[in-house]
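Posted in: Structural Biology > Protein-Ligand Complexes

Title: Requesting predicted complex, adenosine-5'-triphosphate in pocket

I'd be grateful if someone could produce the 3D structure tokens for the following input. Sequence and ligand are given below.
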Amino acid sequence: MTTSTIKPAFIIQFDLTLAEHRFSIDLSLPTKGVIGVFGESGSGKTTLLRVISGLQPIKNGTIYFNHHFWQEQESTLPVYKRPIGYVFQEASLFPHLTIKGNLEFAKKRAWPSNNQAQTLNTDTIHRLLNMDALLHKWPSQLSGGERQRVAIARALMINPSLLLMDEPLSALDYDRKQEILSYLEKLKEELSIPIIYVSHSASELSRLADYLVIINKGSVHTHGEINQVLTQPHLPSCLQQDVGVILQTYVQQKSPSDALQAVSFSMNNVNTPLWVKHTNALIGEVLRVQIFAKDVSITLSKSIDTSITNILPAEILSIQEDADHMILITLKVENTQILAKITQRSCENLALQAGQMVWAQIKAIAVIA
Ligand SMILES: Nc1ncnc2c1ncn2[C@@H]1O[C@H](COP(=O)(O)OP(=O)(O)OP(=O)(O)O)[C@@H](O)[C@H]1O
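-- Reply #1 --
Done. Output follows.
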């Protein structure tokens, strides 16, 4: 199989028919960060992962990852030669081996380190996923969340160049999901391995993904940086509730007595603090927050008798109608853009126009931090 010298890229192009289902995928993806794949049930998310891994053969197409062709027209690299770690919905650990045994089994099959992939040592993986307390246990002694943590550690043990995660949290309850999401955030921060993360859950993807691919009926509906995708007015109806922005903010002040913290939109400018729910982030740390457009309302004068904590001066940059016939307004607050979703009636009543100065109201508890 050809090894190319052109710059790193991740290209996926194929057409495939399975029974009556047709898939036609044409994607150029980043080679770092978390790439979220979202779509309704049966849209083709798992099929996309299976094609990338080689588990689903294709007759013709291109799968090109970081200087290597895994599929080049009709020529295919076998599954076992693709340096990919896989995490499924079910952990499927070997029941007759302890957790240490399961991890060592994977390690024996590890890829040799190369310059393109980050080499992971066992201690790093144990630390990142807090494995030490589990090593001498048997799979039957673990909770669902612990088993999934081991499954992620096992996928990393093979020293992959790419991690594929297919609904890894869907079998877990809310608390366990939050726990594993924190581990995944840590992995994302510390590891340079790109992750393709399939999920039905827009909130999981908003929290983790840097890039989003939306699949609809076997083809790509849209793809791009997560903020670009979530600010589009014509997202599929299953994502309409999630239109909004994801911002990198900086923790400025903690207020434990009322479980709030103030964040700023830029590191040095605290003119317009945004109050959000308390998290464990420390002052000065970066905090990723999500503000849904449906949680932002607009007033022409600054309310004083309101329960809403955040009332920010904003300029209207644009006004457009979305797929639900609601009005999506792009607002500029300091140097940051946020979105407000309001009804046509409210937009007309307030006679809103681009260029106008207004007040954006955001409930502190509506901001996801
Ligand atoms: N080998 C196959 N033969 C025939 N049809 C298949 C095959 N594999 C998948 N399909 C069909 O292709 C469609 C897409 O399946 P896929 O599992 O990729 O969807 P998905 O988006 O991952 O769905 P879900 O979110 O429910 O897991 C489904 O209707 C599925 O039944």
